[in-house]
Amino acid sequence: MSDDEASTSTSGRGPRYTAWISLLAFSCISMGSFVSLKDKTYDSSTDKWVLSMTALSLCISAIAVIASVAASAAFVGKMGEMALSTMCTIFWCVVLGPIMNPDNLYATGGYFGLSTVLNANLYFSSWAAFIAAFWISGSLARDAKVLDVSDTTPKTAQWYLLLAASIVVLASSVKIYNASICDDFPDNSFCRRTKFAISIGVIGMVMALVGSIMSALGVMSPLIEVITSVTLFGLYCFGVGYITFGDGPGTAIGNLYFSTWAGFILSGAIFAASLKDMRGGAKSGDGDAAPAADEAKVDEEAPAAEADAPMKDEE
């Protein structure tokens, strides 16, 4: 970390400070949306659980923002900030599932496992708060040298995101299949498309997991990466049309819809970057061959020049 970055971090005005403010805002929107949705009637334990977790996230992020300004030297990058970020990350890991569960009719709802967004503010703010909390924890881990992401390339990060998208595709499609009538009518169009979504989720998860590990370790050759990424891109091309159109299980705005499109975009981006890297490597190899040939030619001409030198001296 440079002196300027260290000064910015300890003053409490760095990117992590902005992330804390974002977490505060998203927690406030999430809790406000939930309170407005339930209209002060918290009948079930899940209702009280969601309200408690969002309220705690709001309070903790507010404390972190204040501490970053009022006591930055004692808080920023210290155990206090690490403890608060860990708590918020755990809270959102625990509460995101109930919020997104269509059976609870909070952010999403539906029938036969199909889910659509019922409360856009609660849906998007909850996902945003979850991402902000994870980003803060990752930033602290990086600064503490617990997690070194300095060598993480954009393409490796895309592999990680593709892995996450494939997991969401798999989980959402399995839930839809189990909650639908596919056990009684396995051959109808909806069930066939749902099975295809499950297949894409499994294949995408396995291939993205292998790709992310190999990319992080730097052992994936450009050719293997191109083959892997174009396979995933082809699957998600069919997936977008087969899952989010017609009788597909992802036609409604929800987790399956967003994750399928995310997989399509990410796999396409990885394929394009991999193809560019492979072509760049080929051009680089051709460029290296030319200087080598020139050097060989010079080496051949040098003895001839040395042989001519004594003859000129005799003359």
Automatic annotation (TrEMBL):
Q: What is this protein called?
A: Uncharacterized protein
Give UniProt keywords alphabetically.
Membrane, Transmembrane, Transmembrane helix
Which intervals of the chain are annotated as region Disordered? 279-315
Keyword NADP listed? The answer is no
- Transmembrane spans: 17-37, 49-75, 82-100, 120-138, 159-177, 197-219, 226-245, 257-275
Question: Which species does this protein come from?
Answer: Attheya septentrionalis
Superkingdom of this protein's organism: Eukaryota
